[in-house]
Amino acid sequence: MTPRSAELAKPALRRDFATLRDDFPALHQFVHGKPLAYLDNAASSQAPNAVHEAMTQQHRLNHANVHRGVHALSERATKAFEGAREKVRRYISAESNEEIIFTRGTTEAINLVASSLGGVRLRQGDEVLITWMEHHSNIVPWQLLCERTGARLVVAPIDDHGALDVAQFEAKLTERTKIVAIAHVSNALGTVNPVAALTAAAHRAGAIVLIDGAQAMPHLRVDVRGLDCDFYAFSAHKMFGPTGVGVLYGKRSLLASMPPYQGGGDMILTVTFERSTYNALPYKFEAGTPNITGVVGLGAAIDYLERLDFAAVAAHEATLLEYATARLTADVPGVRLIGTAAHKAGVLSFVIDGIHAHDLGTIVDREGVAAHEATLLEYATARLTADVPGVRLIGTAAHKAGVLSFVIDGIHAHDLGTIVDREGVAIRTGHHCAMPVMDRYGVPATARASFAFYNNQSDVDRLIAGLQRAVEIFRG
Amino acid sequence: MDDLQELYREVILDHNRRPRNFGELKDANRVIEGVNPLCGDKMTLYVKVADGKVQDISFKGTGCAISVASSSLMTERVKGATLPATLELFDKVHDLLTGAHSHEPEDLDKLAALGGVREYPTRVKCASLAWHALKAAIADDPADKVTTE
Fold first, then answer.
1. Chain A CB contacts of B42 below 8 Å
2. CB interface of B with A, residues 80-139, below 8 Å
3. How much of chain A exceeds pLDDT 70, in percent?
4. Coil vs helix vs strand at A231
5. Which end of chain A is more exposed for a tag (fewer CB within 10 A), N or C?
6. Is residue B59 predicted with pLDDT exceeding 50?
7. Residue B8 falls within a domain, yes or no?
8. Is B66 an interface residue toward A (CB < 8 Å)?
9. ipTM > 0.95?
10. What CATH number is given to the structural domain containing B84?
11. What is the distance between the alpha carbons of residues A388 and A326, in angstroms, rounded to a whole number?
């Protein structure tokens, strides 16, 4: 793509998202003497003031244990804690609060399922099916489970663009497949998997499906009943909340049939030295004092995300779409729009004849937030390709979230990371806890820029300037 | 010279572009793998120890400019050195990388270029990996693997 088409996002983004950016104090600081451009959102996103305030309030005035005390502070803490559970349930369209289990994060949520369900469900010779693009946290718990039970870990491959090979995935689903564990959005590549279809296929084979939603939650509005998955795991700190808290959604019937994961306070009804009886859902899976303040912070983050879904975002999307369509048609030679009737649904698909081998050009139908990210991704991809000599993008699946993984010939990712950091730009470099993905593309590490709705075009420009500096240093 | 130029000095860039003593050493009697789990970088160090000396040395692997240059500069410098001199050099380089002394140790010559990492705490391990591998390789009881963690 040429820098001309890269201009397409400019006015719309600045106007609509500038004020939202003010809600995030961390974005307004200098790093190494330069204003911060935070592009490591796939690792941890920044939290808005509303989250900091809710957590401070919880700490300062309502700090007490939940579910036990009869005093006012404990009641307030319990109300805030359970109130957050209800917010999570509503946000992901779960049927009941009994299906929302608070964990330390996505990793613990997956380990909970592997340990509790896996132990009773898997026998020697059974299989667990995952994909090649999984984060280590959706590989290793299953590996451990397989070692314990004699089951086999089966991996569905991905193609050169970073998309899942769905035919291969389906071919690997057999009567031996008992559990399917897949990422909704890849953290290393940004690929969005067709999880509803994959879930349906897995169910036809009789398997139980867990979706790792850590990267999806900040980009997509997730509806667990719509997906019909059996489990959905995510972390607060990737969706504008605090670290140390996450959620396991599970279908009630399954959770009810599973043995407890950890033992301790809060998960029991009665305890004698002979035997204990367990508490009802969701408490059966929440042993010990939970991360109350973290959960309250997650609730505030969800309130914030809910607010983003209103008219302003839709208007932003429409404006952006209209502007992008106009600029593409007018300024990019060889552009061909596909599916113009879909405009109302917010889809703009196009190919640029003879310019691109891969599909830089799909702006996907998502909410305004995602449309903004898609535009940023598009812009960043375009600038990287056009303005940074020797750059090679890793992960160019047609359906992508706001993640840009790339390498530059002759410059190791860590050197890039250090150099752009000195320019005030935060990106992630390394294997992104996805070593199999690195092996698949034959690179030891990549640089990854990942976007949130609060990023703007200037962040992208700063990244490009930093990378150009790296090229200048290394190539002289 | 700004911070970045201090880190990426010309000698570092040169050794990254054209690493010296790169490749397998056929008659090595000490082979050790160095791993930096943080970045997934791996290097293998081949050393031929004989007559109390590092008779020959080479390395292979992938890594950032700092780690490749450090390995390259190291092999160039210690080839032919006695084992006690090599261990003494290890200590000097260690001090250089960690900033144990306010001034750069003497006699380091080209190796002094590695001192730039002091200002980059996350990068010190990149420079030290090869040196830890070397120390383990020439020990009386040589290991076959070291990591930076």
1. 444
2. 120, 122-123, 126
3. 80
4. strand
5. C
6. yes
7. yes
8. yes
9. no
10. 3.90.1010.10
11. 27
Q: CA of B41, closest CA in chain A: separation in Å?
A: 7
User: Residue A414 and residue B39: Cβ atoms within 8 Å?
Assistant: yes
Cα(B64)–Cα(A35) distance, integer angstroms: 26
Measured in residues, chain B has a length of 149
Number of structural domains (chain B) is 1
Domain range for B12: 3-143
pLDDT exceeding 90 applies to what percent of chain A? 46
Q: What is the pTM of this model?
A: 0.80
Contact A469 B4 (CB under 8 A): yes
Crossing angle (nearest 10°) for helices A10-21 and A311-331: 150
Alpha-carbon gap, residue A190 to A434, rounded angstroms = 12
In a domain, B149, yes or no: no
Q: Residue written as tokens 């160039």?
A: B76
Region of poorest pLDDT, from A7-11, A256-260, A345-349, A466-470: A345-349
Cα distance between residue B11 and residue A470, in whole Å = 16
Pairwise CA distance, residues A237 & A291, whole Å: 13
Over residues B7-27, the mean pLDDT reads 94
Given CB atoms, is B35 within the 8 Å cutoff of chain A?
no
A146 is catalytic: no
Cα–Cα–Cα angle for A350, A353, A356, rounded to 5 degrees: 85
Give the percent of chain B with pLDDT over 90.
Answer: 61
- Within its chain, how far is the Cα of A300 from the centroid? 18
The residues in A 439-458 lying below 8 A from B, measured between CB atoms, are 444-445
Answer yes or no: do A445 and B39 touch at CB < 8 A: yes
| Contact (CB<8Å) B65/A419 | no
Where do the DSSP E strands lie in A65-188? 100-103, 127-131, 152-156, 177-183
Residue B70 CA to residue B19 CA, distance in Å, equals 9
- How much is the pLDDT for A351? 33
**DSSP H or E segment with residue A304:** helix A292-308
**B118 part of a folded domain:** yes
CA A410 to chain B, closest CA, distance in angstroms equals 8
Q: What is the pLDDT of residues B37-56, one digit of tens each?
A: 776 678 999 999 999 999 99
Select from B3, B39, B123 the Cβ nearest to the Cβ of A430: B39
Q: Which two tokens stand for residue A109?
A: 């949520």
- Tell me whether residues B39 and A429 touch, CB distance under 8 A: yes
Q: Is residue B111 part of a domain?
A: yes
Q: Do A444 and B40 touch (CB under 8 A)?
A: yes
Most A CBs within 10 Å, among B39, B41, B126, to test the A interface: B39
Walk me through the domains of chain A, giving residue ranges and CATH numbers: 3-31+310-475 (3.90.1150.10), 50-307 (3.40.640.10)
Which one of A415, A422, A431 has the shortest CB-CB distance to B40? A431
For residue B11, what is the nearest residue in chain A, using CA coordinates? A474
Q: Is A50 helix (H, G, I), strand (E, B) or coil?
A: helix
Residue A469 touches partner B, C-beta closer than 8 Å = yes
Residue B56 DSSP class = E
Higher pLDDT, A63 or A325: A63
Write down the catalytic residue from A166, A268, A318, A433.
Answer: A433
What is the Cα–Cα distance from A102 to A124, expressed in whole angstroms?
31
**What local confidence, expressed as pLDDT, does residue A359 receive?**
25
The dihedrals phi and psi of A162, each to the nearest 5 degrees, come to 95, 10
All residues of chain A having their beta carbon less than 8 Å from the beta carbon of residue B5 are: 473
Residue among A410, A418, A435 minimizing CB distance to B120: A418
